[in-house]
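User: Fold this one for me? It's Ribosomal RNA small subunit methyltransferase E.
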Amino acid sequence: MRISRFFIDAPLSLGTQDLPEASAHYISRVLRLSTGAVVQLFDGSGQEYRGELVEVGKKHVKVELREQLAGLSESALKIHLGQGLSRGERMDWAIQKATELGATEITPIVSERCEVRLKDERADKRLAHWRQIAISACEQCGRSVIPAIHPPMSLQEWLAVEADLKLVLHPLAEPLTTHQRPATLAFLIGPEGGLNDAEIEQARSAGFQPARFGPRVLRTETAPVVALSVAQQLWGDFQTDV
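Assistant: Here's what I get for Ribosomal RNA small subunit methyltransferase E.
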């Protein structure tokens, strides 16, 4: 039987725990779990806590945490994804899948061809939305650590990121397999309209090396799925011996 996992944005410990109202509502009104149900909570520290629901109300849920467990190990490859800002569900998809594929940090990048511009309150709402997508993805895929979702940043600012290997996707570049194994990786992926030639050169001047996967040009929401999958296969925690 699969045990439901929930992220709690507060330090956890063994014993009785009152859950936040939002989590309580989801457990009681959406999932309709009842007293006695076994759940597993995590707080982003890398540890997990298994216990049993002892009180379930519409807005109040209490759980007795009885067992502390080591969470799922993170990939040895630390990946910072710089994802070109795109519209609605495309950006949501990119963040969700990058989280599932082990990205350590994700930064939405604003470049010339971005069709989305976020400011002030709208930007804050989108950032909270993206962070919730990452949390939900961790709950689903088993990750015990939530990736950092940074506020949108200009391309020029983000290019100062530090990593052992910095790559920018380009259809005319050398294959990804020509690079040596890094411990930290920064991946730059353009928006729906792609990065223009000047931005590619700007990235190269900042130490980014062009890389490609094959002959086809991928959509902005497909590219991070392929990029992170290949990187984890080559240098991370994807296994090939099974």
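One thing worth pointing out: The helical segments are 21-30, 88-100, 120-141, 155-158, 197-205, 223-235.
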